[in-house]
Amino acid sequence: MSVGRWLRRGAITLAVLAAIAGAGAAWHVHQKLPVRDGELQLSGLSAPVTVRYDEWGVPHVDARNEDDLYRALGYLHAQDRLFQMEMLRRLSRGELAEVLGPKLVETDRLFRTLGIRQRADELATASSAITAQPGAIRALYAYLDGVNQYQATRPAPLEFEILGIPKRPFTAADTYSIAGYLAYSFAAAFRTEPALTAVRDLGPDYLRIFDLDWHPKGALEPQALNAPGPRNAPGGPNGPGGADRRFADVAPLLARLAAVSGRAAELAGLPQFEGSNAWVVSGSRTASGKPLLAGDPHIAYSTPAVWWEAHLRTPQFELYGHHLALNPMALLGHNRRFGWSLTMFQNDDVDLIAEKVNPANPNEVWIKDRWVAMTSRQEVLKVKGQPDQVLTLRRSPHGPIVNDAIPGDRGERPVAMWWAFLETENPVMDGFYKLGRADTLDKAREAASLIHAPGLNVVWANATGDIAWWAAARLPMRPEGVNPTFILDGATDEADKPGFLPFSANPHEENPARGYIVSANFQPPGDTPVPGYYNLAERGARLDGLLNQGKRWDVQNSQALQLDVQTDYGPRVLRPIIPLLRGSASAEEQSLVEALVRWNGAYKADAVAPVLFQQLAAELLRAAMKDELGDAQFENLRRTRALDQALPRLTADSDSPWWDDRSTPQRETQTDIVRKAWKAAVAHLYETLGADSTKWRWDSVHTLMHEHPLGKQKPLDKIFNVGPFPVPGGHEVPNNLAQRNGSAPWGVVYGPSTRRLIDFAKPQEALGVNPVGQSGVWPDAHYRDQAELLAKGQYRREWLDEADVKAHARGMLVLKP
Q: Beta strands 317-323 and 308-314: pairing type?
């Protein structure tokens, strides 16, 4: 049975329940709500654990020891987020089709091919031998016991009933699998490398608008941002000016792979990690004289939200933390002595490698100087309403063969995937366990060094005055001159990894003289190139410029930085083509062009210029590039950060070959394509928003909806989804409520997953917010009680002091042995 039929069955079930007169249905739903008052039994505790819930549903947990603390944490986390845990483990392990039907087979097949499940099982087997030792692994197993006790003793979530999901215990392999999904969601290579390889196939003049060079002084240093690369750059084996078409034969496969990768998380309705802001200011620049930490990781929005908060205490330990589903370690956290935030490093930790196949034996590939056999394994994929499918998954010495993610062997050359998540020890659980106890520079540095994949920027401060940032990842060594932005040749040494760089060689700063550190996904400075898919520099440059104004910072004026909606990106794109726009616009449209001329790049709620710019940018890219790339590769490129870098370089290069429309016999110019794009943009906006352009405003076309996995099906959307909310901000401004490149209206796809501000003079007055609410259980009071706060740019307190916890307690739950 298909996912649609199961969701329709669920919709009918809910409709029937809603129609029942009496208390039966209400009682049934009420039984599934979290219990926040009274006493409950939790086996395995050595002493009672006290849990006080504040007005936002955040548990403040007091336990005698760590075993009790993490066992209770698992129970409490599960009662708010059990369905989220279930969906994430099924997504990451390739098991969604078992409950959602054949539409999810494609997604399951992808994740089985990536090898996450196999690697997670290996890590779980290794960890099971050390559960008696104090530390992260012991905490994980206590936490999982708490999760499983909740599931075994309490009613199943409503979503389990709608979809017919059976209960089954959660394991360490599930936690490690979700960590693999986290690493996958960071990996832009699955979409970017196929698209940029297709661009390279067109020839080096087409590639010039993409900024693929390493900037040793970093992306924030002044440089010719608009300057395209050199003409007639080396074109690979064909020499200067020639296209490198060595791997043109795998282009169709890679286009399909990129499309599958893009659909995977969307179909599952689960968040992907996209970018982030974080900064830390030393006491020399703050009003209080102590460091101030700010952070807002940018993650795709969903219901429930990605983070779940908990304040944990034992006699030896305290942390207010933000947790991911099925993970006992806080990935964001603070206490009175120290705290940290994260941004995505955006280093490229995935290589796609085209193998050379033995003509006499299709199961062998050429490695260095000989033919080497690929290995294979079989996995059974269960599909609701259909027979099981048996997958044969191959692996070369370079890694899993990604062709196997696409059903039906078309005889294409095998493409292997080298992925740091599969090839490093990656003791990330230990890293975050230690980070939660890292009150000194040395301890924090050691903890960050244990994060191998995905790459993360750890931005840290303590109350004694230290500030620091470490780019945490295991960075591979590569042969000289190899650019992993493109498909690599497995028959040569291009794909070799002779070793890993020491952690000390990673980009980092500790107590810099400037008195602050900004991390916003831009390329960091460094003499050793770190290939990656970095975000635009403008967001980081805007924050850097504001922080360097000489102001004394506190948690009040720092809010304006997190909510800032301006960069120079839009004006930078527009400046070279303003004369062309004036020449393209009719007399009636000149006022619209002048709105763009006056625009300072701010995405304010009531502004018209962002509406015009976003639609014009979409039409420009479509008119300039789609004829060369075709529908599939253009769509893949449209979803990458590489296109953000390319657009201003394109508008600055009037001689770029992209301006010619290959579908016509004549040769078009930049003037022709700009005119075409302007006319198309204005026509679409008139049709969509009405003829009176004075009524066009950004927040009428830029809205935020938090979608639940079941909210894709009507009428379940009215029950489970939260929103929509009109919002300011936009793609790659500090208040990064980001929309995809495309036509109006624009839904926000990702943005601040929390906004945290901590002044270590008064850490007990830290501010934060959750995009939706603590609870993932409908219709709990904390299911959507913070959604309006985030949309309006408001904050709430994160209670830390005992007096505040006591004053704001709205319920007390005691867990007894």
A: antiparallel
